[in-house]
Design a protein that fits this description.
- With about 350 residues, the chain is of the alpha/beta class.
- It folds into 3 domains: about 120 residues, Glucose Oxidase, domain 1, CATH 3.50.30; about 100 residues, PtsI, HPr-binding domain (Enzyme I, Chain A, domain 2, Orthogonal Bundle); about 80 residues, no CATH class.
- About 40% of the residues lie in helices and about 15% in strands.
- The strands form 2 sheets. The chain has an 8-stranded mixed beta sheet. A 3-stranded parallel beta sheet has the order 9-10-11.
- Helix 3 crosses helix 4.
- The longest helix is centred in the first third of the chain and has 26 residues.
- The N and C termini lie far apart (about 55 Å).
């Protein structure tokens, strides 16, 4: 038995055989292009556009926080500054594959050096680049393996596009060698209640088919567990499942002090599930969903319908609505298409 340590996400425990994510596509070689710069740029832009739409589609299917994350990735893919960097490289005779790889890598390194929350976004940029390069090469995008049975997924890091649509009947738990508690892998794992441990560097040596116990509460991955350890882990998992299926009661501390359970919602469609899970109101309702994907400003009637749907799910309950701070990382296509050298210091909405 060996214990591998990382950062646990949640308090769950799971066990099963390992299935590893495939390695990233190799970086394109810097070979001269046989096409014109304009043709290479057109190839790159077409691939970026396709990937951005695929990310948005995955977000629509996943809903909730995953939708916001994937829409942000789509905007990242089509960032005008990134496009200009790709264009500068194709103008110098580089292939679309190399131009995308090199431009995205440059931005990735900048984010990584910032550390913290922005540093965690570097992995998101890597995923976008991999998907664009796969599109240019005519290859399937990197994705989650399917060994034909339930498994513990082990990866260097997991892209939001993959985390958002994980088949929870097959993925028993998630282990990443990279990332931290603010990575999108961790954020989405929390939202989906996936047993996960991130930043477990030693997990790089885990082999396909190897049985492990993933204990998120302790931040420990146990390899080659004994029969007794497997039984103990299963007992804890069963106890958590029983507690989760217990009748819902108002939120309260152990001494009886009331603590309202308030939902965090990104669209009215999530209200019914929140009520089903015991939400007693809404602590944060984000209004971005009405604006960020719209080509025209939503009408008063459309906004009224959305807010009415939400409020009807919580009659007489507390609902906190956050207004949109448009601009910078939340550009609105219908509001202001003028170029800004530094959008973060440009025209912004107020909350």
């Amino acid at each position: 038995m060996t214990e591998l340590r990382g950062v646990g996400i949640g308090l769950g425990v799971a066990q099963g055989p390992v299935a590893r994510m495939a390695e990233h596509l190799p970086a394109p070689a810097d070979t001269p292009s046989t096409l014109t710069p304009a043709e290479e740029l057109a190839r790159a832009r077409e691939a970026v556009q396709v990937v951005a739409r695929e990310l948005e589609e995955r977000g629509s299917k996943a809903g909730g926080l995953a939708r916001e994350v994937l829409e942000a990735q789509a905007m990242m893919a089509e960032d005008p500054t990134l496009d200009a960097e790709v264009e500068s490289r194709t103008s110098a005779g580089k292939t679309a594959e190399f131009a995308v790889s090199d431009a995205f890598a440059s931005f990735r390194d900048t984010l990584a050096k910032m550390g913290g929350y922005l540093g965690e976004r570097a992995a998101d940029l890597d995923d976008v680049a991999q998907r664009v390069i796969a599109r240019l090469r005519g290859l399937p995008a990197p994705g989650v393996p399917d060994p034909g049975h339930p498994f513990v997924l082990v990866a260097k890091d997991l892209a939001p596009a993959d985390t958002a649509l994980l088949d929870l009947d097959k993925v028993l738990a998630l282990i990443t060698t990279d990332g931290g508690p603010t990575s999108h892998t961790a954020i989405l794992a929390r939202e989906k209640s996936i047993v996960a441990i991130v930043g477990a560097a030693a997990a790089k040596d885990l082999a396909d088919g190897e049985t492990v116990i993933v204990d998120a509460a302790k931040g420990v991955v146990t390899t080659d567990p004994s029969a007794e350890e497997l039984a103990q882990a299963q007992h804890r998992a069963d106890a958590r499942a029983a507690a989760a299926s217990a009748p819902l009661t108002p939120g309260a501390l152990k001494d009886g002090t009331a603590v309202p359970l308030l939902a965090n919602l990104g669209k009215p469609g999530g209200a019914a599930e929140a009520v089903e899970l015991g939400a007693e109101g809404v602590g944060l309702f984000r209004t971005e969903f009405l604006f960020l994907s719209a080509t025209q400003a939503p009408t008063v009637e459309e906004q009224t319908k959305a807010y009415t749907e939400l409020l009807q799910a919580f009659p007489g309950k507390k609902v906190v609505v956050r207004a949109l701070d448009a601009g910078a990382d939340k550009p609105l296509a219908f509001l202001n298409g003028a170029h800004e050298d530094n959008p973060a210091l440009g025209l912004r909405g107020l909350r």
